[in-house]
Amino acid sequence: MNPPDATADEALPGAQTVRRAMAILRLVACGQERGVRLIDLERMSGLNRPTVHRLLKTLIQEGAVEQDAATRRYLIGPEISLLGLARTRRFPLLTIADPYLAELADQVGDTVFLSVRHGHDSICIGRKTGHHPIQVLSIEVGVRRPLGLGVSGVALLSCLPEAESGAIVQANTARLAVAGERAEDILARVAQARACGIAHAPAGLMPGTSAVAVPIRAESGEPLGAVTVTAMAERLAGGRLAQVVERMRDRAQAIARRHAEVSERRR
Prior knowledge:
- By secondary structure, this protein is of the alpha+beta class.
- The chain has helices spanning 15-30, 38-45, 49-61, 78-84, 92-108, 151-158, 162-171, 173-178, 183-196, 238-266; strands at residues 65-67, 74-76, 111-118, 121-128, 144-146, 199-201, 209-217, 223-232.
- The chain has two domains: 15-85, Orthogonal Bundle (Arc Repressor Mutant, subunit A); 92-265, 2-Layer Sandwich (Beta-Lactamase).
- It has a six-stranded antiparallel beta sheet. A two-stranded antiparallel ribbon has the order 1-2.
- Helix 6 crosses helix 9 (183-196) and helix 7 (162-171) runs antiparallel to helix 9 (183-196).
- The protein is globular and about 55 Å long.
């Protein structure tokens, strides 16, 4: 799920402004309910403060962005949420994967996520909770992160040719830096995931937790998405980690087969 390349004629009136506005919207979306600071929007976009401020002002006027009066952070506005309702079936992979994710969550007892690639980002489009008393809800549905940040992004990148994944990580350098990550560290994790077929973070986003992700590969080998399990660290270690990964791989393969069947019928 990749947006069209930005190769259209830049001479078209307003093309640059539209692209910059869309870039700012994507960055604001990364903040979800927490919001994003102006200084971070500057750093991640590479635009100067007057330009970012001018774009934000217009987006606020259109209801696409709003600013929290207390924190001064910027968040996605109601207009974007309302526009999204026009395409509620935009993620056919989620419809296909939903029963498999529910089954996996029931089997392992922990929280299961489904993420997809969108350009240089990974986006969480689905989440199922298990039956264990402590569920690690590390991210919300709709979270957008630069590819490479988090195990799902690493798993997605590991399916791509080395040159392509490297170019994506380099393009995300500024955004990764804001999150305290270095491009070379991300590339090392991608190489490891490519070698072993999984992306594992013994120390997850939340203290005392862990996460592991397995890619969902199309017949071509390209990533359709990634299945992630998050849990308390002791539940994703040793022999249990191997058991969880085996079940994740089984469900990921089942999702890929079902996706291929549905795609074939639609041709």
